[in-house]
Fold this sequence. Notes:
The protein is an alpha+beta fold. It has 1 helix and 4 strands, in the order ββββα.
Amino acid sequence: MKSRQRYKGYVIEARSCEIKDVGFSAEFSVEEHDASGVTETQFYLPDTFPTQESAIEAAIQAGRQKIDVGFERGSAVVKRMSCGGSCY
């Protein structure tokens, strides 16, 4: 499952990934669009969630928090679990 949302001039793209017999993981990217193109910064949430919807909502909330407090653009925070299933 994937959801895109505008927030304070950025685009947050939240994604969920099913982890067999565990639940769903969540990840998101924050896109900054300007005249030179798009800068995308990716983040991964370390938690698991019982549903796709709760994973997506957590990723959107985390994206808003990153934008509110500031983050290093173009960097990637890599702490990703292997899905062992299908990412949406």
